[in-house]
Amino acid sequence: MLTGGRLVSAVKNPRFKKFFSSQTQQQIDIGVEVTKYAVEDTKKKESKQIVVDAMNQMLSRDEGWKSFYRFKMNEIDEKKRDDTILDILEIERNAEIAFAQGNYPRAKDQIYNIINQYCKDDILEKGYYQQEMARMTYPMSKVDSNKLQISAHRDNNTLLRPKDGMIFKKLSVEGKRIERIKEFIQQFDDYSGLKAQLESTLGSLNLIRMLKI
User: Fold this and answer.
1) Which residue from 9, 13, 88, 161 has the highest number of Cβ atoms inside 10 Å of its Cβ?
2) Is 169 inside a domain boundary?
């Protein structure tokens, strides 16, 4: 069972789904389909009882459930596996080995290779790896490390703030608002993915509001 807006949003987000195997993606889709059936049944039973009944069917290996599961899993259209994440992990490993051995320039260069090869279209991911470069650079130069952290935070403001020299800029909405809304909606495969993302965002905003109180 997956609960919580942020978790549900993560498994439905196209940015992360590409890292799941075909089997995992299909299992998530099965869960979404089962949930739709459960919502329809809420007109006949209490929500709590529907969840309990569904869990009992799976835990007792109900024949109907097993047949449904096999049928849906057999529908999987095997696609060529994207091994990009494995290549990135290999480079990260090499960087960490170099860093542990005190070869800080090589460690930094390894992380830069990730940015150069895999993060051209993902500014948030680029920011994360710039922060990794800042960490690799710190033993050599605290000043250069801080400069990298400034760049990292500028690209991804969820990262650590630099010690000093942080740059603030006024937020601006570029382009037509309606077009940007359409682009945001079109990145999701279905309504449930969009709904999960919106609930996650609203939940985060509500948490910020409560913390300020």
Assistant:
1) 9
2) no
What local confidence, expressed as pLDDT, does residue 173 receive?
61
First-last CA distance in the chain: 32
Q: Is 117 within 8 Å of 85 (Cβ atoms)?
A: no
Domain boundary among 123, 155, 187: 155
pLDDT beneath 70: ranges in the chain: 41-43, 78-82, 167-175, 207-213
**90 in any annotated domain:** yes
Residue 156 phi/psi, 5-degree rounding, is -145, 95
**Total number of domains constituting the chain:** 2
Please, what is the average pLDDT of the chain? 83
Are residues 92 and 125 both part of a single domain? Answer: yes
Which of 106, 132, 155 is where one domain is finished? Answer: 155
21-71 per-position pLDDT tens digit: 888 888 888 888 887 777 776 667 777 787 888 788 878 888 888 888 888
Tokens 């939940």 sit on residue: 203
Q: Residue 87: how many CA atoms within 13 Å on its side-chain side?
A: 9
